[in-house]
Task: structure prediction
Amino acid sequence: MKIIAIADHLTPDTGKNVLKMDNTADPRLVDLGGVERIDLTFPKFTDGRAYSQAFLLRRRLGFQGEIRATGDVLIDQLVQMQRAGFDSAVLREGVDAADAQRQFDRFSAFYQGDAVNPEPLFARAGASGASSLLPDRGARSGRAIELNAKASPAFAERLEEAIATLAFAAATGPVTQANSLGAEDMVITHLINAQQLPISVFVLETGALHPQTLALLDQLQAQQAAHPQAPLHILRPQAEAVVQFVEREGAEAMYRSIELRKACCGIRKMEPLARALAGQKGWVTGLRREQSGARAEVPLVDASEQASRDLLKFNPLASWSWGDVWHYIQLHNVAYNPLHDQFYPSIGCAPCTRAISAGEDFRAGRWWWEDEAAKECGLHVKQQQEGAPA
Ligand code: SF4
Result:
């Protein structure tokens, strides 16, 4: 969260397409094409309508530009603003911006539990020490590491098994890794790089990812530039298909029915996936047996798709625990998505992913409004079950 001095805010940002949105406007009805920054107003600090607008812009409409809070903004509101989707704020007159920035950077914890941090502050402090209450700015001691990094007794063997599976995959070639920018996939890409294996990496940039995920994608792009044997390919959906679908069904169609949700996944994920896998002998995924009941039997090498689409699927982390994944991340300083620090174990598109609470299933935050049985996007559903080409 960046705090902007009033004088800087009033200096015109030349060349930037800024939209000033009235706090009575419905963002869903506003044309956001080409907009780089949206200024939302708080006429009084007690008027919270701009929070809803920011949330809608980020979580429902996937707006990825800057969202700025202006008007009667208090220091106390900054953390909540950040959680609602704001990137920057101009504080009310008379407040020193530099001092406010220092305060914000020093301490940004919430007292009450909520959807993002289900446990209240005292419980979080008791569970993992006061240091976890300080803001995580991508530091290696992030909350997800503190909470999860715990190697299982079999970690060394599991690591060897993963490396052997990847080496076998590379020998099968050409093979590509599906990197969803989640913790498991970042570990696998790190292993591919460390072993210098000729396995390309692809990311499905669906156009609906969280800003944090997109920032990690930038980081991954820079990282893979140094590993030419594992080039990164970013696959995006056909723009026209997305526009037509959204015009016809609306931006929130996925919540209306499973069919519409699968249609959205079909356009944004399955079609680009088919392009990513064209000409490949196999693909590498981050599936683990522990992730869900449906994945309990995941093998290291899955040949069940060979008949339907002549592809082997390699799951090098099949036997890893969640603690193993985070132990590896901590050990090797692997870049990870900061959403993991906010109780998002499984991260997908922004409209279809939420944080989970203590005791909830690992994938409870994905398509949470649907029945358990439907909770796959099709990427890992066998062709004979799904009945549609992927
Ligand atoms: S996960 Fe949600 S937003 Fe992403 S492609 Fe599927 S339905 Fe669409």
Remarks:
- The radius of gyration is 22 Å.
